[in-house]
Write a structure and sequence with these properties.
- By secondary structure, this protein is an alpha/beta fold.
- It has ten helices and eight strands.
- It has a single domain, classed as TIM Barrel (Alpha-Beta Barrel), CATH 3.20.20.
- The chain has an eight-stranded parallel beta sheet, sandwiched between helices.
- The longest helix is centred in the middle third of the chain and has 18 residues.
Amino acid sequence: MQPPLVDTHCHLDAAEFDSDRDDVADAARRAGVAAIVVPAVEISNFPAVQDCCARYPHCLAAYGLHPMYIGRHRPEHIADLRAWVERERPLAVGEIGLDLFVRDLDFATQEFYYAEQLKVARDFDLPVLLHVRRANDQILKHLRRYGITRGIAHAFNGSLHQAREFLKLGFKLGFGGAVTYSRATHLQQLARELPREALVLETDAPDIPPAWVARQRNSPEQLPAVADFIAQLWNCDSAAVGRQTTANACAALNLPSLAAETGL
């Protein structure tokens, strides 16, 4: 029997799923995805995330202000986020972080929102879901500064040294469709070299599709095939990947009910 999987990062609330969201959620469930973490990206989509997670019991909400949307964020949204977190008690604060890939995103403004959201996570003792594109060292600096010791570095693509620094802080590293491409030799080597306790699975659907659905809409039902790919890198069976990565997700995100349900 295959163990249940956790998709630790999936934007199921996105407009790309408006026409068939029920079918997508059902297909993921039937494929063995027991939990889907749905992170918000800006204040205006908090209600959509809330509604999505109310509609599908296996979906779990996170609320945050994504660095790529700083043009829409306002300082008062930090207080709004704090109010949402206090009222809704989400799984995590996210998606938050820093992005040095997109050139026209003011870095000082990104840092302001990132730091303020880390304070929210700290004050409510919640893990964080991190956007870390080309900003691993800067992300780590603030995690240390605010004493954040739990969460996931989503779509990790840093160095082995940076990976180990995240692990020292108590974080897990998100691996998904990007690792499945033949050119992704760095990610594949990381998956082989890092301890198995380091990795969690994710899709980032509708984005970052795996190689077998390249340039198409990604969906959470692809997660078992990603687990199969990781199993090849680990030289083990897919069930072992499922058990390990689900246990890792439970540890990173404080999912005791799922852990108990699955015997992990």
